[in-house]
Amino acid sequence: MALAPTEPNETFIREVDEELRRSQAEDFFKRWGYWVIAGALLFLAAVGGYLFWRNQQAQQAQVHSEQLAAILNDISQQRTADVPQRLGTLAEERNDSFKATALMTRAALAIQNGDRQSAAQDYRAILDNNGVPQAYRDAATVRLIQLEFDSMKPEDVIARLQQLAKPESAWYGTAGELTAMAMLKQNRKAQAARVFAALGADQN
Questions:
Q1: Do 113 and 96 form a contact (C-beta atoms < 8 A)?
Q2: What is the mean pLDDT of each run of 10 residues along the chain (204 residues)?
Q3: I need a labelling partner for 196 at 20 to 30 A (CA). Which of 4, 102, 148, 177 fits?
Q4: pLDDT value for 64
């Protein structure tokens, strides 16, 4: 008949098991301890660097927002003498959204002042920057085509606006109208009429 394990035997087994684990841990640390510490330090440095970068980005964004708000206020007050230069400074920043906003604003001001060539250059700068959010790129596409519509081939107008001249697009109204006008230049009157009718029936 087998005897039930006794408390001293269980205690002995636990002590042996703990000693074995301690020995394995010591061996592991002797072999890999340096790399574990180095990895931990690198991780902490990376986290610290990322948090510092995020803080710098937030502070920079706040400064740019204040600068842009001041520029827009000056425009509304007809104080525009140095506005293009200030917008040009913002357009040189790394933040693509601020860069695009500055270029769009400067282009609108240039159009207001009759400088269509400078406005077109700013719109092209937005389109040439792949980092700019798509909403800005769409706006620049429509505005640039509006500026250059008379000198563009109608088929080019239609092709470039194909994705924007759809009911689900925020630019459906403007892009659809430009598309229909390009069709008229091609003497496609029936198709242009259908586009105008669809625009007129769209409640959005």
A1: no
A2: 54 61 64 57 64 60 71 74 79 78 87 90 92 90 94 96 93 94 95 93 83
A3: 148
A4: 65
8 A C-beta contact, residue 88 and residue 57: no
Task: Return phi, psi of residue 128, to 5°.
Answer: -80, -10
Cβ contact 93:112 at 8 Å: no
- Treating both helix axes as pointing N-terminal to C-terminal, what angle do 7-76 and 96-112 enclose, rounded to 10 degrees? 10
Q: Would you state the pLDDT for residue 30?
A: 65
pTM: 0.64
Chain mean position to CA 41: 32
**Is 185 buried (19+), middle (13-18) or exposed (0-12) by CB count in 10 A?**
middle
State both tokens at 135: 């909403």
Give 100: exposed, middle or buried? Use CB within 10 Å, 0-12, 13-18, 19+.
buried
- In Å, what is the CA distance from 196 to each residue of 157, 172, 174? 16, 11, 11
User: In this structure, are residues 125 and 103 in contact, taking their beta carbons and an 8 Å threshold?
Assistant: yes
- DSSP letters, 87-124, are HHHHHTSS-HHHHHHHHHHHHHHHHHTT-HHHHHHHHH
- How far are the Cα atoms of 40, 178, 189 from residue 202, in angstroms, in the given order? 60, 16, 20
Q: What gap in Å lies between CA 72 and CA 109, rounded to an integer?
A: 11
- Reading the block at residue 166, the tokens are 């759809």
CB 85 within 8 A of CB 107: no
